[in-house]
Write a structure and sequence with these properties.
The chain is of the alpha+beta class. It is built from six helices and three strands, in the order αααβαββαα.
């Protein structure tokens, strides 16, 4: 078996000699464009400032994720709900858990929202389109044209 790495192993490889090593093989996915990430946060900040009362950019971000983002819906035993919430939300700003309903005695049905760091290009496009739409409804100037927004998403992962 052979494989290719993106970084020269050099001393790192030598430091592994004689030590147990694990290898993970997974499908390569495109990394998120820093332009798309910066655009997302700029829109969240502008929308938040225009609200009355103002909202933090983080609250706008979570609102967008809740409106059009990616989530799992699953039952959680009531005794572990706080622990699951704490662990899930430790992944970042966009990772949050919302109790939706009672599932069965001793269980709650929850939506577990994912942060955009795990989004595909199409999922991020939906989120950015939602934020742009919200900004336009509030008459907030959009710093990029539709063509520039599309080019930004096309660059996703090409860096």
């Amino acid at each position: 078996m052979s494989f290719v790495t993106r970084t020269p192993p050099g001393e790192w490889f030598d430091s592994l000699k004689g030590k147990p090593v694990s290898v993970e093989i997974k499908k390569e996915s495109k990394a998120r464009s820093k332009d798309a990430n910066a655009f997302c946060w700029a829109l969240c900040a502008d929308i938040g400032k225009a609200m009355n009362p103002p909202l933090s950019k983080e609250d706008v971000y979570r609102t967008a994720i809740k409106a059009v983002g990616v989530y799992w819906q699953t039952p959680i035993p009531l005794f572990s709900l706080d622990d699951v919430r704490r662990r899930w939300e430790s992944h970042g700003t966009g990772w949050f858990l919302e109790v939706v309903d009672d599932d069965a005695p001793g269980r709650k049905r929850v939506n577990m929202y994912f942060g955009t760091s795990t989004y595909t290009v199409d999922e991020m496009r939906v989120l950015l389109d939602w934020l742009v739409d919200q900004a336009e409804q509030m008459q907030i100037p959009i710093p990029l044209s539709k063509a520039e927004q599309e080019q930004m998403l096309e660059r996703w992962g090409k860096r």
